[in-house]
Amino acid sequence: MRATRGAELAPALRSLTAPDRVSTTPPDRLAYARDLWPRGMLGLKTGQAPAHPPDVVVWPTSTAEVQAIVRLAVENRVPIVPFGAGSGVCGGTLPLAGGMVVDLKRMRRLVNLDRASLTATFEAGILGEHLEHELARRGYTLGHFPSSIMCSTLGGWLAARSAGQCSTRYGKIEDMVRSVELVTGTGEVIDTTGSHGLGADFDQLLIGSEGTLGIFTRAVVAIRPAPEARILRGFSMPRVAAGCEAIRRVMQRGLRPSVVRLYDEIDTLMARSSAAKEEKAAAESEDPEERAVAGWLGLLGSEQGKRMRDGLRRRLVGAALGASVGRMRVLNRAADALLPRLSGGCLLIVGCEGDRPLAEAEARATFREIERAGGKDLGPGPGERWLRHRYDVSFKLSKMFQAGAFADTMEVAVSWDRLLDLYRAVREALAPLCFVMAHFSHAYADGCSIYFSFAAAAGDDQALAEERYDAIWRTALAASTSVGATISHHHGVGLSKAAYMPAEHGESMAIFRALKRVLDPHGILNPGKMGL
Amino acid sequence: MTGHDTQAMGRHAAALSGAVGADHVTVAGERLTVVPGAAGEVIEAVRLARAARLPIRFGGALSTDGASVSCDFGRMTQMLHLDETSLLVHVQAGITLGALEERLGARALTLGAAARRSLDRRVGAALAAPRPEEACPRGRFLEACAAIDGVLLDGTALHTRMAPRRATGPDLSHALLGARGTTGAITGAWLRVLRRPPVTRFVGAAFGEGKAAIAVACALLDRGIRPADLSIADGALAAGEIGGGALADRETVLALRLDGMADPVAAEEALAVEQAASAGGRPVSSPLIEAWLTSLTASAELSRREPRLTSRPHRRHATFIPWCDLAAAFAAAGPRAELSALTPAGGALSSDAPITPRPDPLAIWRAALAHALDEGGSLPEPRTR
Ligand SMILES: Cc1cc2nc3c(=O)[nH]c(=O)nc-3n(C[C@H](O)[C@H](O)[C@H](O)COP(=O)(O)OP(=O)(O)OC[C@H]3O[C@@H](n4cnc5c(N)ncnc54)[C@H](O)[C@@H]3O)c2cc1C
Questions:
Q1: Mean pLDDT per 10-residue run, chain B (385 residues)?
Q2: Which residue of A185, A211, A496, B103 has the fewest CB atoms within a 10 Å radius of its CB?
Q3: C-alpha of residue A153 to centroid of ligand 1, in Å
Q4: Is A194 in Cβ contact with B131 (below 8 Å)?
Q5: Residue B224: which of A199, A355, A515 has the nearest Cβ?
Q6: Rounded distance, CA A177 to CA A119, Å?
Q7: Do strands B139-140 and B135-136 pair parallel, antiparallel, or not at all (unpaired)?
């Protein structure tokens, strides 16, 4: 590994912070050379050294230290990559030009909890799970539960405009923020406290900047009393379209469910199969509701049907992982043709929470709307199962990679009038290239996000894997933008989507560039990201 | 005169007439007023003003001393597109909230409670210079804006793209939203609209002390209810406007408008009644509350139609106060104090006493952004390493 100018700053950094909070060791530089962008992991799988290690890693413990670090970097024109927990999936923390990685995780305090205003002030490096724990033990919640809650930080959420699983009720992170503290690329501190209510939201010009405009050091967030009641329910929707229509009606009636997740037929099949063990136990249950769910999950209730479905799932996954690109389209077509008959519909999970009487009333109204749109009530089982396993996804990806495959997800969003066009356009475009499934979550009165998951394989051939991976993304984003969707709902842009920013924002990129000139005139913050 | 003599002003007027038509340009001394009819004409006017080194002001913004161009949006009042599937409407910036509300009403749609007190304002003005009272527990009017069309000071036309939410960098529409025209002009907007709610209920309670009414409002929001309106009137205001006869001396009144689906509205109503009673609140009859809350909207409506006939209450200036300071500020606010637009963040306080506007702690950054945008095209691309 080549050590560049950043490493020379290590002694100065040690005196600004502490000797044990600065590292230039190869293991640390290696660890901070990547995030969880699957493309980066393709190289890792074949043992390739990361192309862009940082020269030095530093762990500040206060805003003043962050300021001092930035000023040192400015003086020496050394780039800085702000780092939360590295769970980003877009290459946002890759130190393209070496330099320093500033890891915020030692800034993790709950600074203040204001019960009168229902706000909490946290340092930006606190991990999501710890943040929720701090609030929970005082009887509150932020209501932000990304699947990566155990491995992502408040600063990372702000930087990438994160969305949690209960966003339908509580909003995305940008909706929860009352003010932020940010160290700019000149080492000045912007504190937006007191600007709320004056009209303009300067916060919104900082949030989402992915480390290119400043380093978040603190935020004041709105909190709520922990919900007294949570009511979860599963529904079987005849088709994706009916499921979308149900969600649209619910959201446009002014109802505020906390969870809304509609799985398309393939995703439904996967969700059911992974519940197989629980399902077996449930089938023997005394509880009629649980048995009903197990019956549904068991495909028309018959053992034979269940075997067929499990066989199909195995074949689909197996084929996806082994299939040549040429056979992908056939595979996806077969799934399309068979699934509507075999899957028994799409699974919709809905949840309402809050003060008990309010949550119950909201649930009644919500469930009624879903039934009106053709939903068949499956009872609480599917929802409760989802709740138990809602963070499991975080641990599955590496298994895919070990099996010689790769997988990634694309979360895009569009208004309701074009939602099904978006779903069809992406599936159709990706059909020749990979195995693809989707679920719909993060719903609003004016539109919804679709979360596409795709998987393909290229054995141990890294170059082929990268080529396929890039082709899949190019195709998927082209299909999304062709129907007017945004390129990201909550994962951000980083490096992977940087080239699409001019198309996403058009002339408005002038504003982003003006912000960059004002806040980071020397261009030291996270260079090479976001198309700046 | 700032280097723009009568002859020069005549030349500028002629150039602007070429852009928007001679009927839509007036000259009064050093002040040129243009009344464009479309976004393209606003852009042209901005470019011409920039070329002539004349400052340009938008909407009702006060003109500076010296020569300037004032851009009036009075002709840009079209509703361009209504998407009833996604509940979005695309409008030109000059349409008033009242006129838009009327058009939406014909389709059983509404802009929602946050817009109700500003029916006389133009969409562009309400977005560029929001007022604290343009909010309700469900959010601020500003948040109804899904995308904007506009022009930056350097003449760059821009359209932020519509998306329910996105994670593609900062929300760039906020460079114009709330910027009071310092960074450019809003020429159009995509607004989120709502279906008219099937059920509406009014709940009110009278309290001996303002503090108790505020505590109940706060508790209700904490427990998760989201009324369409949540306002508090002090004793003097309540006696005059809600019904002196029905209220004891100096009683503060808490008023709620609840609307939506029947089940949740009934649950919210029960909760509000219970919470108010447990804090010593005495019920005030629904028709009185309905009449008061409706009169606030009605007076905004009247002022839209007959600006000379009414001047209150929405014309009183309000200031935003966060929850932690609300009780003290309300007590100190002077006669006929009203707390409206209560949201989980705070509320809008107005009274007959003048209220000093709070300084903007971010003014310096906004000014820097405006400066950078003004110089936009002429600066080199930012350096990246
Ligand atoms: C299995 C899995 C599940 C996921 N599920 C979700 C989900 O449900 N919802 C969701 O929104 N995301 C999800 N993500 C993506 C990821 O967790 C989010 O993007 C998260 O916001 C990143 O936080 P982080 O602290 O790990 O940031 P990092 O990955 O460290 O950084 C992300 C970006 O933010 C910048 N940054 C980090 N901290 C700061 C700071 N303090 N100041 C300025 N810039 C900073 C970095 O420079 C980088 O550009 C998931 C990821 C994985 C791997």
A1: 74 94 93 95 94 88 75 96 98 96 96 90 95 91 95 91 95 93 95 97 96 96 94 93 83 96 98 97 96 80 56 63 91 89 91 76 88 64 32
A2: B103
A3: 7
A4: no
A5: A355
A6: 9
A7: antiparallel
Provide the phi-psi class of A128: left if phi over 0, else alpha when psi is between -120 and 50, else beta: alpha
Residues of B in contact with A205 (CB under 8 A): 170-172, 174-175, 369
CB contacts of A199 in chain B (<8 Å) are: 129-131, 142, 178, 180
Bridge partner residues of A435 (DSSP): A455
CB contact under 8 A, A447 and B167: no
**B87 vs A190, A252, A518: nearest CB:** A252
Ligand 1 atom closest to the Cα of residue A165 is 8
Nearest CB partner across the interface for B369, out of A255, A490, A515: A515
pLDDT of residue B146: 96
CB–CB contact B195 A253 (8 Å): yes
Q: CA nearest B167: which of A174, A444, A415?
A: A174
Q: What is the pLDDT of residues A12-36, one digit of tens each?
A: 999 999 999 999 999 999 999 999 9
Q: Which two tokens stand for residue A313?
A: 């799932």
Closest CA to A273 of A362, A344, A173: A344
Take residue A192 and report the two structure tokens written for it.
Answer: 């937006």
Candidates B266, B219, B287; CA nearest to A365 is B266
A272, A265, A234: which is closest to A351 by C-alpha? A234
Contact partners, residue A363, CB within 8 Å, separation at least 6: A231, A233, A257, A352
Cβ within 8 Å, pair A523-B379: no
| pTM for this model (two decimals) | 0.92
